[in-house]
Every structure is written in C-alpha cells, then in structure tokens.
Amino acid sequence: MKIVYVFRSLAVRGGIERILTDKMNWLVEHGHEVTMLTTDQGSHPVPYAVDKRVRFTDLGICFHYQYRFSGLHRLFDMWHRNNRYARLVDEQLRKEQADVIVCATTSGADVLARKKGRTPLVVESHSIFQRLADVGRLRFVQRFRLLRALRSADVLVALTEGDAVQWRKKLDHVVVIPNMVHTPKEPQRAELKARRAIFAGRFDAQKQVDHLLRVWQIVQQRFPDWVLDVYGEGPLRGWMQDEVRRLGLHVELHEPAVNIFQCYAQCSVLLLTSEFEPFGLVLTEAMSCGLPVVAYDCPYGPRTIINDGEDGFLVRAGDVDAFAEALARLMADESLRRQFGTRAMVTARKFDAALVMPRWVELFENLTKQ
After folding, report:
1. Structural domain total, the chain
2. Which of 95, 165, 234, 287 is deepest in the core (most CB within 10 A)?
3. Residues 200 and 338 placed together within one structural domain of the fold
4. Of 330, 329, 325, 323, which Cα lies nearest the Cα of 296?
C-alpha cells in the first residue's frame, strides 16, 4: 500500500513528530510504501531516527514567514502561500498516485480535501474538538471552513473516545485510534527509590506549568530532599526560570532529552498538569518504564490511560491542593509507588505498536476497498 503523509515539518522534538515518525517507520518495516510531504521542513534536520525507506518531499512553502509581516501585508502573504501550496500539493499528489492520503493534523485539511481527487483522505486530530468550538481561540469563519473540509474527508481519527463523542456531533465519519507507546528496544525500568519527580512537555499555557510550580512549592515543604526534573522548551521557559529562583524551588530545568526514557528511569513519579491533553504521550512512555503518574483529569487523554488509584492518580482538573496531596502520597510511600509502577507497565502495553498499528492498516485497507 502507498501512503502519503502531509505535515508542516519534522523539525522539533514534539509528541506529534515522534508519533508520526514511529508510525511511518512501522509501516515501511511491514512492507508499505510511505512518503512524507512537508510544507516547512527546509534545511531543518529530523530530530528522530527515520527509516531510510521513508521518502521525503518538501514543498518549501514556509508558512511561518507570513508572521514577518503585519496587517494587509500579512494577509496578502498568507493568501499567496496558500495558493502556492494548493498548486504544489496538487502536482505532488498527482505524481504520487497514493492509495491513501493522511493529513497529520487538521491544519491544511481544506486544501487536501479539494485536491485529493478519488483518493481516500484521513485527517488526524491531535487537538480536541473543544478547542475548535471555542470561537475566541479560532475565528468563526476558520471554524466553518475547517468543518466543511473535514466533512469532505473520508475519516477523522480522534485519539480518545471522549473527544470522538464531541466530533461526532458535527461529523459522521469519526474513528478512535490512540497513540502507540514509543519505547526503546531495551527499555529501562525505574527503581522508584530516587527522590526525584519528573515533568516532560512544552512550557506553555496548555501544560499549565504555573500549576506545576505551585504544586511543587506545596510538596517541597513536606519533602525538602526531593527534586523535580523538568524537561522541555517553550515560550514560558524564562518565566519558569525566574519563578524557580524567586520561590527557591528544588526544580532543575533541562533541555528536551535525546533519550527521555533514561530520564524516566532515574525518577520515581511523573507529573502532568495540563489544561487539556488530546492523549498524553508522556503518560504512556513513563508508565512503560514502571513510573506511577499523577495527572489532572482534563479532557480527554489522562482518563483514557490512567486507572485512578491503581497505576496513578487522576485529580480534579485545576485543583492544585488535591494534586499536591496525591503526589505527596506517592512521595511518602515507596511500597505504593512500586505497586502502582508494576500496574503501570501492564497498562502501557495496551498502547504497544503491535496492537495499535494494525488498526491503522485495517482502516487504510477498508478505505481503499471502498
């Protein structure tokens, strides 16, 4: 089967980029032909190991250049780049003659819906419908155009059933396929003795890193010998550095780790304070290393993964004090950490590639038969 993925770029160490790389690698390893069509890759190196059988074609649109301008100049530049993208993607899709086209995010789905011809189009949702419905964050006209495009797609794939329920209020063709766990060939298991907790993610508003620091400020009073390792990058890094110093927190900020699994294995619990989480890849990764986890019960990923009170704790969204109390229970009790960690490894296996990826192949095959 010949599959064409369309995405902006594989240029940063992010969850979508990692999962997309893993899926393409798995597909070529199992005999499928995969092409990655990017719009903004340019000379940026791919941060994850990609099988040499995956073919790359970059259209060189560079959508991000529009933000160099303002006002009408930006609107004209955006219009120009969109038209160029539509022309080039049409040429490339005619050349590829794929069996299936996969739009790796909802961005760009409108153009692909117009240019796909009779080829099945699959659109992946790596956000949540609730964000789309918030007109304050996405203008009404943009929302209308996107929904119109998604109705022209053959399938929209959501990561959780909770999100799929919301999408199905607007679309008839929604299926659920979760992210698979990315694990090294020889994963390490955490000993759970270290007095260290870990957070891994982007430093932005979605991850609510302000909540993260408030939680740690509370538990540090009871556990002054514990350290929080924070891995990531993002617009709030400078603010976090200032807050850590101002509050005197035992928090160490790190750049994104090349091998995050080694970092998981050196810690004893993972924290996730997101406002919303389409899936929560770090949860499954950490759990595959035997780490118990504590997360807000936010829409919609954590509740799909965590069995509350068995392999981690789900805390009412936004409740900093309750989060700190749940975390303190694990910090105080090594035996409880071990119980949760053992069960966490079992939970993580539900998202193994051997179970998730055949669902993608089945979806593709059904679409080509139709």
Report:
1. 2
2. 287
3. yes
4. 323
